[in-house]
Amino acid sequence: MPDHLSYEREFDEIRPQQYGWNNSVRRSPCMNLFPISLITLIFLPLTSSIALAQATVEKPSAPLKAIAVVHPTEGSKVSGTVTFTEVADGVQVHAELTGLTPGKHGFHVHEFGDCSAADASSAGAHFNPTNQPHAAPDATARHVGDMGNIEADTSGAAKLDYLDHHMSLANDDRSILGRSVVVHAKADDLKSQPAGDSGARVACGVIGRAKSQ
Fold first, then answer.
1. Taking the alpha carbons of 168, 170, 176, 177 in that order, is the dihedral positive or negative?
2. Active-site residue list
3. 97 pairs with which residues across the strands?
4. Which residue, 94, 113, 100, is CA-closest to 200?
5. What values do phi and psi take at 84, rounded to 5?
6. Is the link from the previous residue into 194 a cis peptide, with omega within 30 of 0?
7. Cα 139 from chain centre
8. Number of domains comprising the chain
9. CA separation for the pair 159, 207 (Å, rounded)
10. Residue 200, CA distances (Å) to 83, 88, 94 in order
11. How distant is the alpha carbon of residue 177 from its chain centre?
């Protein structure tokens, strides 16, 4: 009489041949899916991380921006704002002032971010880290702080917008961050040393980091 082992042998050896089975047909579907599931679990977080990293790298950063809020010195009425924005080939300077006498006024970045003195003498001299002579803003050799003149209309309002190729908002020796903007009573003649003979200081504002948009 066939024993239990004989029936198992018949099932394992004879039936597959009779019905055209092979060993892979009798494997559990779960066994076939297991390696695929494992690979998916390993690589899905990895691909997600790569995609996130690429999105982070490709996102453009906001340009560096600084601002000086200008306040009058003793006996003056001059006030306003000066903004500095990093662009591809320099720093874009935009100034809007009121309370000036009509005409041109010397307009510079000074070495110290200190406007505490009544006459703004605490701001020090022109910012000149490269030890160059005083000159016009478009000169090759000039103080980093030489911004020339800002011109007021008959109402005392003045605007200035120009691109400066000498100053910086980065962490280097030409950075104007932490310095000050000083406005003078007279026009800068752009040649007299050391400061253009532009007279008393009528306004001062410390340059600080601004919120980038």
1. positive
2. 108, 110, 126, 134, 143, 146, 184, 201
3. 80, 158
4. 100
5. -130, 125
6. yes
7. 27
8. 2
9. 18
10. 23, 35, 22
11. 13
Q: Which domain holds residue 49?
A: 4-58
Residues 73, 151 within the same domain: yes
Give per-residue pLDDT as tens, 48-63: 555 555 554 444 567 8
Between strands 180-184 and 201-209, the pairing is antiparallel
Q: How many CB atoms lie within 10 A of CB 152?
A: 21
84 and 158, same domain (yes or no): yes
Contacts of 7 (CB under 8 A, 6+ apart): none
Q: For residue range 101-113, what is the model confidence (pLDDT) as tens digits?
A: 999 999 999 999 9
Q: Is residue 124 domain-shared with residue 145, that is, in the same domain?
A: yes
127, 171: one domain: yes
Asked if residue 204 lies in contact with residue 120, where contact means CB atoms within 8 angstroms, the answer is: yes
**Which of 19, 38, 58 lies at the terminal end of a domain, its last residue?**
58
Shared domain for 41 and 81, answered yes or no, is no
